[in-house]
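Dear colleague,

Thank you for sharing your sequence with our group. We've completed the structure prediction you requested, and as agreed, I am returning the results in plain text so they can be pasted directly into your records. Please verify that the sequence below matches your submission; if there's any discrepancy, let me know and we will rerun it promptly.
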Amino acid sequence: MLKKILFLVGIMLLLAGCNTKDFSFSGNSDHWHAELNVNQSSDFEKKDFVLKYKGKDIDSVGDVAYDVEEVGGFGRTGVTLEENGVIRDSSESNPTNAKMSEDTEVKVTVKWDDQEETFTLAKD
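Please find the predicted structure tokens below.
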């Protein structure tokens, strides 16, 4: 009987550790649309970021730099848009105590062709 109870407790702990939480943020500026999708569990956090240029002349944009301010924060410089005007970034980490939450404020700054725009992403 004790073995069955220990087995059930072990299974419950294992399943509790496997629970994942998904949430996303999105927002717009005059020239850009951004989405940040977050998938996390107790021992990992994956972030998928998409930045899309809303204009028509993609070739005129040149190199892009962006900075995403949130709990961990990330960004890149010298990035070129894909043919469809998109930049994609993905990261996976094992955060100890600096995890994003659904209430995290996410701010995006984009710099390109001597221009700069900053905007906030809202939870979807």
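Summary note from our side: The chain has one domain: 20-123.

Kind regards,
the structure core
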